[in-house]
Design brief:
- The structure is a single chain.
- This protein is α/β, with parallel strands linked by helices.
- It has two domains: 207 residues, Isopropylmalate Dehydrogenase, CATH 3.40.718.10; 136 residues, Isopropylmalate Dehydrogenase (3-Layer(aba) Sandwich), CATH 3.40.718.10.
- It has twelve helices and 14 strands.
- The strands form three sheets. Strands 2-1-3-12-11-4-5-10-8-9 form a ten-stranded mixed sheet, sandwiched between helices. Strands 6-7 form a two-stranded antiparallel sheet. Strands 13-14 form a two-stranded parallel ribbon.
- α1 packs across α10, α1 packs across α11 and α8 runs parallel beside α9.
- The longest helix is centred in the C-terminal third of the chain and has 27 residues.
- The radius of gyration is 21 Å and the shape is globular.
- It binds 1,4-dihydronicotinamide adenine dinucleotide and magnesium ion.
Length: 363
């Protein structure tokens, strides 16, 4: 938390494309109210990335966006279809991608698994975000056998070690189990197990459990409650974390934080631009909101984070659902705007009820 009694934060909001802009706008409304309630100031600048940036500035990741982001307290991002995002992540060295997968009680029956399989589910996927196959030597070429393409999964040992240290620290603060996704039977030159175990010598209270990534994917579906922290490379983490969407009921619920070593971060939902529902105003904003909660926690604004999570739980417990959660029976279908209104109402009434209690107690 910033030291002054009325801290001020500056964020850069980048909607991007498709539902990206819709869910970012929705989340900002909630953030602004919570800032008022908690007594901190929020300044918002709008930045550009991807196709819209290309149209306006001739670059997927324009200098104008860099200038806005420099010195800010966080970037809240929607989604893009092409270009810009990998560059942004690389530019600020956002190597540590945190993707919590937590079940909300009132959505237990929305999981693809039976409720008893996901009750209490609380996994933190940590994905390495600025190296590996998305950044290794790549190209297309041809030889006597014809045209071919290649992407190279290249990791410096130190890149694995630094994300391992982050994961070990998180595991230490949680339940002490760190599962490491690897594929060393086929990719022996990427020794995730050994490197993580060497780093773990300084974390004697954390159990390191290496697991072949294909088996890990299966175990996440068969027995997800057994996991605490899962550490994965860029590619494996990308794929595994979408399983989380099926576990909790919708990919639209999942948020993520991508941090660099200074604690500066990019906050975004796990999902993409969802072209099938873009422009209809029906996207679930709770994934981006979950990312904003991670931002507040990163700032040390724990009260604000708690307020949002509690308001969200109450709205969901009352049965309100966006379309991706397939409302049934007594559940009530709402669009993005209505869900945000409900969240704002919950947040404001929480304030009143608190004052009411206070009033009752001093009366
Ligand atoms: P997607 O996550 O956009 O959509 C997958 C499915 O989930 C769709 O049926 C969509 O309607 C639904 N969905 C996703 N988010 C939702 C939400 N908040 N509320 C309700 N329903 C939601 O993944 P897809 O279709 O594979 O990718 C679409 C585009 O997004 C592609 O161009 C892809 O490259 C891009 N993408 C961008 C990302 C980013 O900018 N971080 C991440 C993932 C994909
Ligand atoms: Mg993905």
């Amino acid at each position: 938390m910033k030291s002054s009694s009325n801290p001020s934060y500056r964020i850069v909001a980048i909607g991007g494309e498709g539902i990206g802009t819709e869910v970012v706008e929705a989340s900002l409304k909630v953030l602004q109210l919570v800032a008022k309630l908690e007594g901190f100031t929020l300044q918002i600048n709008y930045g550009w990335l991807g196709k819209t940036a290309l149209e306006q500035f001739g670059s997927y990741f324009p200098q104008a966006t860099v200038e806005l982001c420099n010195g800010s307290d966080g970037i809240v991002f929607g989604a893009v279809t092409q270009g810009g995002l990998l560059e942004l992540r690389k530019y600020y060295d956002f190597f540590c991608n945190l993707r919590p997968i937590r079940i909300v009680d009132s959505l237990l029956h929305k999981s693809s698994l039976r409720a008893e399989k996901v009750q209490g589910l609380d996994i933190l996927v940590i994905r390495e975000l600025v190296s590996g196959i998305y950044f290794g030597p790549a190209g297309r070429s041809s030889d006597e056998k014809g045209a071919y393409g290649y992407h190279t999964m290249l990791y410096y040992d130190e890149e694995i070690r630094r994300i391992a240290r982050q994961a070990l620290e998180k595991a230490q603060q949680r339940r002490g189990l760190l599962t490491v996704a690897h594929k060393e039977n086929a990719l022996p030159h990427l020794p995730w197990t050994r490197l993580v175990q060497e780093e773990a010598l300084r974390f004697p209270d954390v159990v390191v459990e290496p697991m072949l990534v294909d088996n890990l994917a299966m175990q996440m579906v068969l027995n997800p409650q057994r996991f605490d922290v899962i550490l994965a490379s860029n590619l494996f983490g990308d794929i595994l974390s979408d399983i989380g969407g099926a576990l909790v009921g919708s990919v639209g619920l999942l948020g993520s934080a991508s941090l660099n070593s200074d604690g500066f971060g990019l906050y975004e939902a796990v999902h993409g631009t969802a072209p099938d529902i873009a422009g209809k105003g029906i996207a679930n904003p709770l994934g981006t909101l979950a990312a904003c909660v991670l931002m507040l926690q990163q700032w040390g604004e724990l009260g604000a984070a708690q307020r949002i999570m509690a308001a969200q739980e109450r709205v969901l417990a009352k049965g309100y659902r966006t379309a991706d959660l397939s409302p049934q029976g007594a559940e009530i279908l709402v669009n993005t705007e209505k869900l945000v209104d409900l969240l704002l109402e919950e947040l404001s009434s929480e304030k009143h009820s608190k004052y009411k209690e206070l009033y009752e107690s001093i009366k």
